[in-house]
Structures are given as C-alpha cells and as structure tokens.
Amino acid sequence: MGFLLTVARAIDSLNEVIGRAVSWLALALVLIQFTVVILRYVFGIGSIFLQESLLYFHGALFMLAAGYTLLHDGHVRVDIFYRDASLRYRALVDLGGSLVLLLPVCGLIWTLSFDYVAMSWAIDEGSPETSGIPAVYLLKSAILAFAILVGLQGISLAIHAARRLAGYDDGGDRAPTTV
C-alpha cells in the first residue's frame, strides 16, 4: 500500500498547487469587475474583452479549483449521518461514493465533452463579438481539466479511504487502534 499512498499524496499535491494558484483568479475577478464598473459608469467606456475575461476567470476558478475543494472536503454534501459517524463508516462512504458516483460522473463528463472541446480547438473558436477574446477553446478546455482533476482527487480519496479501512493512519503507518 506504500505505492498507493505515494500516488494519493502526489494527486493531493497536484490539486493543492493548482488550487492555490487558481485562487488568485478570485482577486483578478474583483479587480476586473471593479475596473469594468468604473470604466462604464464613470468614463462611459465599455469593454467586451474585459466583460468576457470575467467569464473566463470565473469558469477557470470554479472548474480548476474543484479538485482542490474536494481535497479539503469543501463540497456540499448531506452530512446528517456522515458528520457524527465513525471513521470506518466515513471511509466506507468515501470509498463507495468515489467508486460508484464520483469517478463514473467524471468519466461521463470527459466522454461527453471531449468532442465538444476538440471541435472548438479544431475550428480555433473565438468570441462571436468583434473585440471579444479570440480563444473560446481555452475556456471549454477547462471542462476536461475539471474532469481530470476531480477524477484524480476521487482516486486519491478512494485510496485514503481504503487505507483507513485497512487500519492505516494518515502518516502511512499502521494505526495503533482500530478504526
């Protein structure tokens, strides 16, 4: 199980780095929105490019940080039973949820969006607006990145859950007490 722990930690590190990097887009969103409002209402200037950049940053922030959010258990879940449950029960829920729900959904998202994204790249899809961002394919690619990052984090979650069920603690050692 040492190899699996190494894989899980590598996935966790990947999503940690990407999540922290992408989190800066939240600041960019605020600054750009502030700029758009000042330009429009103070100077009477509109910018389609800036407006579209808000969509790109917003999409990238949420799609690319989803794996980070899963890593830190930040996704919404009905935890009426989960929150007060034993470590073993939570590990079973995490393992089952990852294998039965999360990974198949990520696979479905990948499968259904791959041709959509590939076609966007093939035609070098740009904004329908004249002064818009000429790279819609980059925004659409975030869908595939979402499926990969969340899927990988689901694999890591399943590995950690399986290790807890096997009696290992987070440090990679056998836990001294039963789970």
Keyphrases for this structure?
6 helices; mainly alpha; 179 residues; 72% helix; elongated; 0% strand
Explain how this protein is built:
This protein is an all-alpha fold and 179 residues long. Helix content is 72%, strand content 0%. The protein contains six helices and no strands. Helix 2 (24-41) packs antiparallel against helix 3 and helix 3 (48-64) packs parallel to helix 6. The chain is elongated and about 65 Å long. The two termini are 17 Å apart.
Fraction in beta strands: under 5%
**SS-derived structural category:** mainly alpha
Query: What is the total domain count?
Result: 1
The backbone outline, from C-alpha atoms, is: elongated
Radius of gyration: 20 Å
Number of strands: 0
The succession of helices and strands, N to C, reads HHHHHH
Helix content: over 70%
Poorly predicted spans: none
Distance between the termini: 17 Å
Could you tell me the mean pLDDT? 92
Q: How would a textbook summarize the main sheet?
A: none
Number of helices: 6
Brief rundown of the structure:
This protein is mostly helical.
What is the strand and helix layout of this fold?
Blueprint: H1 2-22, H2 24-41, H3 48-64, H4 66-71, H5 87-122, H6 136-165
